[in-house]
Write a structure and sequence with these properties.
The protein has 383 residues and is α/β, with parallel strands linked by helices. Helix 3 packs across helix 13. It has 13 helices and ten strands. Strands 1, 2, 3, 4, 5, 6, 7, 8, 9 and 10 form a ten-stranded mixed β-sheet that branches. Strand 9 and strand 10 form a beta hairpin. Belongs to the thiolase-like superfamily. Thiolase family. Keywords: Acyltransferase, Transferase.
Length: 383
Amino acid sequence: MAEAYIVEAVRTPVGRKNGSLASVHPADLGAHVLTALVQRSGADPAAVEDVIFGCLDTIGGQAGDIARTCWLAAGLPEHVPGVTIDRQCGSSQQAVHFAAQAVMSGTSDLVVAGGVQNMSRIPIAAAFRVGKEYGFDDPFSGSDGWRKRYGDQPITQFNGAEMIAHQWDISRERMEQFALTSHERALHAIDNGWFGAETAPLAELAVDEGPRRDTTLQKMAELKPLAPGGRLTAAVSSQISDGAAALLLASERAVRENHLTPRARIHHLSVCGSDPVLMLTGPIPATERALARTGMSIDDFDAIEINEAFAPVVLAWLQETGADPAKVNPCGGAIALGHPLGATGARLMTTLLHQLERTGGRFGLQTMCEGGGQANVTIIERL
């Protein structure tokens, strides 16, 4: 099978809720990283064969196939098509998978993958709420087949994260320490300029807005749980955010004919389903499956990115995999940097690539929990 290479990866700084990027139209958010991607890679945009973007809540400014809209808003060639996909929080990681699979199959030679989300303008689950206003069925409890299989229990990421904390006996104090470390690592990365090469400043925002310099364990301990008697608080949850990210994937022929420089190759791609009620445990079986299929060990990776949707997601995964915590989210995660849903998968991949290049590492693994009980795993090898 042909190889798929990552030629370029770029992202916006992540804006916090109602922050510097809140007023930027989603199409312009995506257009910004697409423009930077083309400029930095030196690729001819007319040679791109498809643009695959992840996005959730595709209503309002995110409706109408946002992948196509972003490309056109960037002033790029009209003959290049675009498609928008939804695998919940893993949407833009799945976009990378689809792009790589197109290249590896020989179907395409040059494909853009990425994602965009403006959560300040279009809140999480906005599509569900709009649907209810118009009398549409609930996506879960409205289904007879779903109720027969899973009952009437509430299906939310918050309930899933709370259940994980109890099932793996992860204390609130342990989650708060993890959250504090996320902020500290993110701030260390910012202060040392580690994100400089991967970000394209936008709207006078040059660095991620989420990390908090004044957060302490004492302040976290004062917060009320998200549910009565629960362990989760806002401090151990990912931040509502705005942002976009994009990668350029190329075949060997495209690299040669377009005089591009491959920076990494796709070593493994897979996706796995899991319990949709717990919802967020998918990275555990997905990682186990990826290691089995590649014959690799968790110790073979120089850097790992697992999305910090909630602290217990990563902590349970660490318990099950035995991964070295020092290699996991070394530049901080979504608790500090934010989680612009449809863009996060591409943002993580961008950070992973640059982390491997900065440290001289060879293999990197990325995984993230996704709505419906799913998880993608991508393994890349730095060249």
